[in-house]
């Protein structure tokens, strides 16, 4: 409202200045005193200065408002995506997300405020023109009504078409981003199989599909230009015609003002409808960002009314009570009616064939997957009732795929600077990384590349182990954590886990069965259900699934 008011006042001052100038031209033949000239100049200068101040204030206010809105929309989008469940990323191509954060945010940041400014400018110029012509030649109202109707019809037809073409262009752009991102990520594999030409051809096909949506937009723009030029020419024609008809009773200054305003209306109308169209088309970017800003998020990060104590969990007892879960709505259950109790400090191995639900159990403990039925309790606290930060900060996982961030080695071990250098060196020794870090010129400040690509997979896994040793929570989860490490290092790590996590509850998804043969109990999963759950020796004696797996691994 403030912006529109400023533009309205700016246009009013511009009209006032021009009317004042035309009146000044009318009395140019009269004898004027110095005082009347001073008055004319003073008022005209004041109106011009006022217009300049209002133009600056309107533009400044519009840009500040545009930046504020853009910042708000991007913050909403980023906050939502950082709290979106994992299922969303499993089903959404990365190109669509990049498109929102790239092209759409750029449109909101830069294009929409400028388009809105141009729209308001051309709208008030067109409105000013019609007001001036109507004041000078009131009969013009007979022509302006049918011309306005024609203008509205043309504008509506064009805007509806242009908006859909813009939406098609935005949709067809996402596959280009996705394909490019996938190509960059898999460039080494593409080169290895000599498939560069096929990927370039596929990229060209996707770009062509995008251009097929872009080209009709340009054609429709030309279609609009012809019709708006016609309407503008009609306005000039009739404005001049009515001036000629009423020349006997019209002041020369008013006549000149009316015709000069009419001559600039063609360009103003043309730009106004284009800016209207561009505004509606580019608002699609806001629509797309809002769509991704309002997707379902995870549970609250912190629930103040239901926070566990700082020392929780003290024992590390874990219970699954009738627990079932699915990856997302509409899919089959991956864990079915689990009922088990793990005592604090117990070492439990989790085994099963591919797809049995081993990794799903760890996802459930961190509430990356939410329960379809039943509950999990840790030391008597239902994990579904507390905030995600309170839960996840009390659990430690060494994942199957080690995760490192761009930054120093120390930052990857202790991102929040909670521990001293002595403690960091201590865990590096326990994880058998100390000698390697000492050999680096920068030591703890060695820069890790994105994803830790300048370290081997085994070294990245050891960094994750060191990170777990540093935090040393009451519950540790190992998701096939030693799969990428040689047998000798694996044995060293297993001995470290047994000694350093002696009083912790350890849940290990076993890739190598020999690593869990000395565990307290082994949980055997089959198709999402508990098939066996007992000590390794008892399971071997039962000669069931675990016995057959051990036999296949050559352990019997």
Can you walk me through this structure?
30% of the residues are buried. The protein folds into two domains: 2-23 and 40-293, ABC transporter type 1, transmembrane domain (ABC transporter transmembrane region fold, Up-down Bundle); 310-552, P-loop containing nucleotide triphosphate hydrolases (Rossmann fold), CATH 3.40.50. It is α/β, with parallel strands linked by helices. It has 17 helices and twelve strands. A hairpin with a 2-residue loop joins strand 4 (373-378) and strand 5 (381-382). A six-stranded mixed β-sheet has the order 6-9-10-3-11-12, with helices on both faces.
Layout: helices, strands, pairs:
Elements (H helix, E strand, L loop, with lengths): L1 H25 L7 H49 L3 H6 L2 H43 L4 H45 L1 H6 L3 H50 L6 H42 L24 E9 L6 E10 L4 E6 L5 H8 L7 E6 L2 E2 L5 H5 L2 E4 L8 E2 H5 L7 H10 L3 H6 L7 E2 L8 H15 L3 E5 L7 H14 L4 E5 L11 E6 L2 E6 L1 H7 L2 H8 L4
Parallel strand pairs: 3-10, 3-11, 6-9, 9-10
Antiparallel strand pairs: 1-2, 1-4, 4-5, 7-8, 11-12
Descriptors for this entry?
single chain, 556 residues, ABC transporter transmembrane region fold, Rossmann fold, 2 domains, six-stranded mixed beta sheet, 17 helices, 12 strands
User: Globular, elongated, flat, extended or rod-shaped: what is the shape?
Assistant: elongated
How many domains? The number is 2
What share of residues are in beta strands?
5-15%
- By secondary-structure content and strand pairing, the structural class works out as alpha/beta
* Helix content class: 55-70%
Mean pLDDT over all positions: 83
CATH class of the largest domain: Mainly Alpha
The helix count comes to 17
- CATH fold annotation of the largest domain: ABC transporter transmembrane region fold
């Amino acid at each position: 409202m403030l912006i529109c008011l400023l533009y309205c006042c700016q246009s009013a001052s511009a009209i006032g200045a021009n009317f004042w100038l035309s009146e000044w031209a009318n009395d140019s033949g009269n004898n004027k005193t110095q005082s009347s000239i001073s008055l004319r100049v003073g008022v005209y200068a004041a109106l011009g200065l006022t217009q300049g101040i209002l133009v600056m204030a309107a533009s400044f206010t519009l840009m500040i408002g545009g930046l504020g809105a853009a910042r708000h929309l991007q913050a909403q989008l980023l906050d939502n995506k950082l709290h979106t469940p994992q299922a969303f990323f499993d089903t959404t191509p990365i190109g669509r997300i990049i498109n929102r954060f790239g092209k759409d945010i750029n449109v909101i940041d830069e294009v929409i405020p400028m388009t809105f400014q141009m729209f308001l400018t051309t709208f008030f110029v067109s409105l000013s023109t019609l007001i001036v012509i109507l004041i000078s030649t009131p009969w013009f109202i007979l022509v302006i009504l049918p011309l306005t109707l024609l203008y509205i019809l043309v504008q509506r037809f064009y805007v509806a078409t242009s908006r859909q073409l813009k939406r098609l262009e935005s949709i067809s752009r996402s596959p280009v981003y996705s394909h490019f991102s996938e190509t960059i990520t898999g460039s080494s594999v593409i080169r290895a199989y000599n498939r560069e030409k096929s990927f370039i051809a596929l990229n060209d096909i996707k770009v062509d599909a995008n251009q097929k949506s872009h080209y009709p937009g340009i054609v429709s723009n030309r279609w609009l230009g012809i019709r708006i030029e016609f309407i503008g020419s009609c306005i000039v024609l009739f404005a001049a015609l009515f001036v000629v008809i009423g020349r006997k009773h019209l002041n020369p200054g008013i006549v000149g003002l009316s015709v000069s305003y009419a001559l600039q209306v063609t360009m103003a109308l043309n730009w106004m409808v284009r800016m209207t169209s561009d505004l509606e088309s580019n608002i699609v970017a806001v629509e797309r960002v809002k769509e991704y800003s309002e997707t379902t998020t995870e549970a609250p990060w912190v629930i103040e009314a239901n926070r566990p104590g700082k020392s929780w969990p003290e024992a590390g007892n874990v219970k699954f009570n009738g627990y079932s879960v699915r990856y997302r709505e509409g899919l089959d259950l991956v864990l079915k009616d689990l009922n088990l109790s793990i005592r604090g400090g117990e070492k439990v191995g989790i085994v099963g064939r591919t797809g049995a639900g081993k990794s799903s159990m760890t996802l459930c403990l961190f509430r990356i997957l939410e329960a379809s039925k039943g509950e999990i309790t840790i030391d008597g606290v239902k994990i579904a009732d507390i905030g995600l930060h309170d839960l996840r900060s009390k659990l430690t996982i060494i994942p199957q795929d080690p995760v490192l961030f761009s930054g120093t080695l120390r930052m990857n071990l202790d991102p929040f600077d909670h521990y001293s250098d002595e403690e960091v060196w201590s865990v590096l020794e326990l994880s058998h990384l100390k000698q390697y870090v000492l050999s680096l010129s920068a030591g703890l400040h060695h820069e890790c590349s994105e994803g830790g690509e300048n370290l081997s997979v085994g070294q990245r896994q050891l960094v994750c182990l060191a990170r777990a040793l540093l935090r040393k929570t009451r519950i540790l989860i190992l998701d096939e954590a030693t799969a990428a490490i040689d047998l000798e290092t694996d044995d060293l790590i297993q001995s470290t886990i047994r000694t350093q996590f002696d009083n912790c509850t350890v849940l290990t998804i076993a890739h190598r069965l020999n690593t869990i043969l000395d565990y307290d109990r082994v949980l055997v999963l089959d198709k999402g259900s508990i098939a066996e759950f007992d000590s390794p020796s008892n399971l071997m004696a039962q000669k069931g699934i675990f016995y057959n797996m051990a036999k296949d691994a050559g352990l019997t």
